[in-house]
Amino acid sequence: MLLLFLGTLAIGLLAQWHVQRTYVRHSRTPVQSGYTGAEAAHTILRQDGITNVTIIEHEELLGDHYDPRHKRLVLSSANYHGTSAAALGVAAHECGHAMQHQQAYAPLQLRMAAVGVTSFASQLVMWIPLLGMFTGLLAAKTGLLIMAVAWGIMMLFNLITLPVEFDASRRAKLVLNQMGFIQAGSERAAVSQVLTAAGWTYVAAFISSLIFFLWYLLPLLTGRQRN
C-alpha cells in the first residue's frame, strides 16, 4: 500500500512539475499581438456571443479556472496581465470551458452533475481507512467494497474530465490562431506545449484513481482480503 501511494504520488508530482516547468518557460515567450490574457479572453468571449461571464483576477499562480456555477472566468495575475504565449494559452483554454457551458457540451454537463457525489467519494476514501483502522467497526469486505465504489466514482469523474479538458485546449488553439492572437511558429508551438503539459495532469489524476480503484476491486473479485 505504501508503494502504491508513493507511486501514484510520484505520477502526480511529475505531471505538476512538467506543467510548471513548461509554463514558466513559455511565460517568457512574448506574443507579437501584445494582448494580455484578460484582453484576449474578453475578445474571445465577445466574439462567441458570451456576454454573461465575468473575468476576474486572483493571486494564485496556475489556479486559473472557469466557474460554471457563477459564470466567472478566473485568471491568475500573471495570466490576467501577461502578454506571453503561456498567458494567452491558459486564458483561451478557460474561454473554451465557457464555450462548452454555453453550448451545453455533454461531458461538461456530466462533470458538473457529478461534482457533489465525487466530493462525497473523496471524503470516503480519506475517512473509511481511518474508521476501519481505529474502530474496527467495518468488516474487511465491507471496507473494500466502499473504497472500491468511492474510487470508482472518482475514476469515472477523472475519465469524464479528460474530454472536457482536451476539447477546451483544442478550442483554445483554434480560436487563438483564427483571431490572430498568436503567430505561426514559436508562438503556436509554445501555446501547444503549455496546454499539452496541463492536459497531462488530468491524465495523471485518471491513472492514479484507476490504480486505486483496481487495488480495492480485485480482492473482491478474487476473494482475497486486503487490510
Supply database-style keywords:
227 residues; mainly alpha; 7 helices; 6% strand
Description of the structure:
With 227 residues, this protein is mainly alpha-helical. It has one domain (2-222). The protein is 73% helix and 6% strand. It is built from 7 helices and 3 strands; from the N terminus they run H-H-E-E-E-H-H-H-H-H. It has a 3-stranded mixed β-sheet with strand order 1-3-2. Strand 2 and strand 3 (72-76) form a beta hairpin. The mean pLDDT is 92.
SS content category:
mainly alpha
What is the H-and-E element order? HHEEEHHHHH
Strand ordering within the main sheet: 1-3-2
Poorly predicted spans: none
Largest sheet: 3 strands, mixed
Number of strands: 3
How many domain regions? 1
Overall pLDDT level: 92
In short:
Helices cover about 75% and strands about 5% of the residues. By secondary structure, the protein is mainly alpha-helical.
Write the layout of secondary structure elements.
Blueprint: H1 2-26, H2 37-47, E1 54-58, E2 65-67, E3 72-76, H3 77-81, H4 85-102, H5 106-135, H6 140-178, H7 186-222
Parallel strand pairs: 1-3
Antiparallel strand pairs: 2-3
Helix pairs in contact: 1-7, 2-4, 4-6, 4-7, 5-6, 6-7
